[in-house]
Design a protein that fits this description.
Distance between the termini: 38 Å
Largest sheet: none
Number of strands: 0
Structural class: mainly alpha
Radius of gyration: 16 Å
Number of helices: 5
Low-confidence stretches: 11-15, 30-35
Mean pLDDT: 84
Helix content: over 70%
Order of helices and strands: HHHHH
């Protein structure tokens, strides 16, 4: 959808009220439903939101690292999202979920490298780390449900 903006993270000094946060979440749910993804698991929505944040953030990396580290971060996150969407529609979900989980683990290290190189502030690192941990929990829970 043209004109749709990337959701802003809470670390940019947002002074939004709980009421505003409700509408931002509501708008995201409407967008996801309009695009036919309203019935996908929560992990897919979380992965999508993390992807948008990472693409926006990596675009601010220094040029010398944007096309190496930044590209790898983006492609890993795209792989996570792709694996989760495939898992949502596959009969045999285990391999897709394991692949997504492995990519999340690698992504954590890549994001940490970005922080250690000074491309990510402490607040940004704290935010994205929490998001990746939550995504990992959701994938792990989904995997356990499939194991039965």
């Amino acid at each position: 959808v043209e004109g749709r903006r990337v959701p802003r993270s809470p670390i940019r000094g947002s002074t939004s009220s709980p009421r505003t946060e409700f509408w931002v979440q509501h708008e995201r749910e409407i967008i996801m439903t309009e695009e036919g993804t309203g019935s996908l698991p929560a992990a897919v929505t979380k992965a999508y939101d993390v992807l948008l944040w990472l693409i926006n953030h990596v675009g601010k990396f220094p040029r010398s690292h944007r096309f190496v580290l930044g590209d790898r971060i983006e492609s890993r996150m795209l792989n996570v999202l792709e694996s989760l969407v495939l898992a949502a529609y596959a009969r045999e979900k285990k391999s897709h979920l394991q692949q997504a989980n492995g990519n999340v683990q690698v992504l954590r290290l890549l994001v940490r490298a970005g922080k250690d190189l000074g491309f990510t502030s402490a607040k940004q690192y704290e935010f994205i780390s929490r998001e990746l941990v939550e995504l990992g929990r959701q994938i792990g829970g989904w995997t356990k449900i499939q194991a039965g």
